[in-house]
Amino acid sequence: MPNQDLILLALNSSPILDLMQRALHAAGYEVAVAHDRSGLNKSMQEAIPALMIIGETFAEQDGFAISSEMLERFPTLPIIFYADKDTTGFAKSVLKNGLSGYLYPPLQMADIVEEVQKSLARARRLGDWLRREVRRTTSSLAEKAKISEAERTKLEAIISNIQDGVVVMDEHQRVLLVNRAVRDIFNLGEAEVNGRSFGDIISNADMVALLSRSSEGPLKYHEINFDDGRVFNAQFTPIPKIGAAVTMQDISYLKELDRLKSDFIHTVSHDLRSPLTAVLGYTELVERTGPLNQNQQEFLHRLQGSVQHITNLINDLLDLGRLEAGFDTRREMIQLDGVLKYTLDMFDSQVKKKSIDLAVDISPNIMPLRANPIRIRQMLDNLVGNAIKYTPNGGHILVSVSMQDKQIVFKVHDTGPGISQEEQSRVFEKFYRATNAPDGVTGSGLGLAIVKSIVDSHQGRVWVESTLGTGSTFVVLLPAHE
Ligand code: ATP
Ligand code: MG
């Protein structure tokens, strides 16, 4: 079988060149001879030789220099170096330059063919190995691409079909992805939104507020209200290296339930109050109808106490209903420290009875407040009342009013049982009574819910700082009137 490999000879004319040509022809190789640099370059590019034999000097240039240049351009080309004389220096340079073989006189045809065959075989093995490697890496890359494409499609399907609204944004709040639910929630239709600022696309004020507040901290919840009555709970979650995501759940039905529940409580409380007034009225009348024995008297008083208790509870519920419905709109200029005096007067006898050391610290220059004085009084009564109620005999209470920027800070600190971390957020819920309360301390769990509603309706904030077993501090911040 004729050998189709082309061998390029870059040798100056000489008997050796002829010998090589003959030897290679005889072995079945095709042979091309380059006579100068441009011929060499042309052959390299057009004929694509399988091997090159280069002389020590070729076209008046150094054979090693030309070889290095060739290997730069064709790194897998096997090159055999022909030196006129064998020296160890040449052998070393051949190795150093990464050439494949070395020929030197005296030369026989067989030596030439053998060296060429050896070099070609090595080059072929290298080529095979390279091809295998390339095939292996490209096939595993293709496999990976296939998997990640499948994963991407799967994720996209999940996100777009999820019931909750999902918006993914980059660091500048430009939309990277919105799902079907978000398009429906904001009536976006099929508008192109990717790459646009999310705040520009939607006009809902609550969502705009959530986005602008998002820079203040890591995780934010916000209620998003729509004019048509829909309410969504939205969370803003930063995603490292991407930006952030906003997820939205429809809580309209929960809101509706809450409203129904409040309406129900309000109606029932209202309907219960009139008959209770009648009961109380008649128990007072009984005393006037004639002399009662001691037992009758005592039972009647207990009856009155209980009816009074239920009436208070119902009044609390009615208050809460009114506050939650936003009916509390009365606003007057008041001094919080002024209202506090009435509260402290009212509790004076109880404080004395429990031998509580109650200190009051009111900073000068407390700014006025635009508020409903009755509600503020109710708030103070509840907070100071709780402190007295939960603090054991002989304990300490500190009530303080101060200014912080343009805010009035009201604090009640006590040495009562304290409230555990887990229960601190719950004590403001309706009917929630913490497990810490000492035995025999009764209550309905509505006081702090009322306090919270009052503070909320005055654009303030209320929270508790407490350690179980040490005491509690209830803090109220209310914006002062400038
Ligand atoms: P009421 O409706 O009569 O006020 P209550 O005092 O039990 O009843 P809240 O005032 O709402 O209800 O308080 C809720 C719960 O918080 C209380 O049951 C109590 O466990 C806890 N709590 C409130 N104030 C204090 C306090 N100063 N020290 C310790 N625990 C307190
Ligand atoms: Mg209370």
Describe this structure in words.
The protein has 482 residues and is α/β, with parallel strands linked by helices. The protein has four domains: 125 residues, Rossmann fold, CATH 3.40.50.2300; 89 residues, Beta-Lactamase (2-Layer Sandwich); 71 residues, Orthogonal Bundle (Helix Hairpins), CATH 1.10.287; 148 residues, 2-Layer Sandwich (Heat Shock Protein 90), CATH 3.30.565.10. Helix content is 49%, strand content 21%. It has 14 helices and 19 strands. A five-stranded parallel sheet has the order 2-1-3-6-7, sandwiched between helices. Helix 4 links the parallel strand 6 and strand 7. The longest helix is centred in the N-terminal third of the chain and has 53 residues. The radius of gyration is 47 Å and the shape is rod-shaped. The relative contact order is 0.05. The site of magnesium ion has 5 residues, from helix 12. The site of adenosine-5'-triphosphate has 22 residues, from helix 12 and helix 14.
Short summary:
The chain has 482 residues and is of the alpha/beta class.
The CATH topology name of the largest domain reads Heat Shock Protein 90
Largest sheet: 5 strands, parallel
Report the CATH C-level class of the largest domain: Alpha Beta
Task: Please give the count of helices.
Answer: 14
Shape: rod-shaped
Contiguous low-pLDDT stretches (5 residues minimum) are: none
Name the CATH superfamily assignment of the largest domain. Answer: Histidine kinase-like ATPase, C-terminal domain
Overall structural class, as computed from helix and strand content, comes to: alpha/beta
Number of domains: 4
The appropriate CATH architecture of the largest domain is 2-Layer Sandwich
Please give the order of strands in the largest beta sheet: 2-1-3-6-7
End-to-end separation: 106 Å
- The pLDDT mean sits at 89
Small molecules in complex: adenosine-5'-triphosphate, magnesium ion
What percentage of residues falls in helices of 4 or more residues?
40-55%
The fraction of residues assigned to DSSP E strands is 15-25%
For the secondary structure, the number of strands is: 19
